[in-house]
Amino acid sequence: EPEVTQTPSHQVTQMGQEVILRCVPISNHLYFYWYRQILGQKVEFLVSFYNNEISEKSEIFDDQFSVERPDGSNFTLKIRSTKLEDSAMYFCASTDNYEQYFGPGTRLTVT
Amino acid sequence: AQTVTQSQPEMSVQEAETVTLSCTYDTSESDYYLFWYKQPPSRQMILVIRQEAYKQQNATENRFSVNFQKAAKSFSLKISDSQLGDAAMYFCAYRIPQGGSEKLVFGKGTKLTVNP
Questions:
Q1: Phi–psi pair at B58, nearest 5 degrees
Q2: Beta bridge partners of B49
Q3: How far apart are alpha carbons B26 and B20 in whole angstroms?
Q4: Is some CB atom of chain A closer than 8 A to the CB atom of B107?
């Protein structure tokens, strides 16, 4: 069964550093998402992406964040200068318009 | 703004018993979808069940069923014959089909403990 994959599973970085989280959505899906879950809290929408552009972004998704689909298979989330409060689980998802399929997540720890 | 409320931060159930998790939502839309996701300790998000708002019939998936009350904006999840593997965080979520974004809006979750 096709699945969404994410790498790395865990990333530790120092405050102020740039990180890139990678996702490979399911191949025939056209809509892609990033969500964030701070430990112990609910899952929050960050951004949606369709036809090579952002279709919606939340207030959390400020200028420090960017997304890209560089090669037709990968879907990346870049955080330009990480802050302590960026420590969270980051989930990628893609949809076939019926349901959203989530990847296993990347745990980002900012020290 | 759409909101999803799960009023039970924690619930517990005895193995083989039935438990109901509550969820209410706020929307002015008439066409939308509702979901329950399970998040075990691995933190993977797993879809449990889905309900389309235009369908009057409550969705069921094996031991999982929902009680969808559209007028009351209520969407509860019933787990029958609870198993130890059902222990997890359960998130209720809402989505408007709007052609392009269709983001999910989640509640804060209910932690379910299953006692042997």
A1: -75, 135
A2: B36
A3: 20
A4: yes
CB B2, CB B94: distance < 8 Å: yes
Distances (CA, A) of B103 to A88, A91, B13, B34, B86: 19, 13, 32, 12, 26
Neighbours of A8 (CB within 10 A): 13
pLDDT digits (tens, 9 = 90+) for B51-104: 999 998 999 999 999 999 999 999 999 999 999 999 999 999 999 776 657 889
Q: What is the largest CA-CA distance in chain A?
A: 39
- Amino acid of residue A107: R
* Interface of chain A toward chain B, CB-CB under 8 angstroms: 31, 33, 35, 37, 41-45, 48, 50, 55-56, 89, 91, 93, 95, 97, 99-102, 104-105, 107
Could A42 and B109 be called an inter-chain contact, meaning their C-beta atoms sit closer than 8 Å?
yes
CB A105 within 8 A of CB A8: no
Q: CA quadruple A84, B105, A1, B100: dihedral positive or negative?
A: negative
Residue B75 has which token pair? 């969407």
Coil, strand or helix at A31: strand
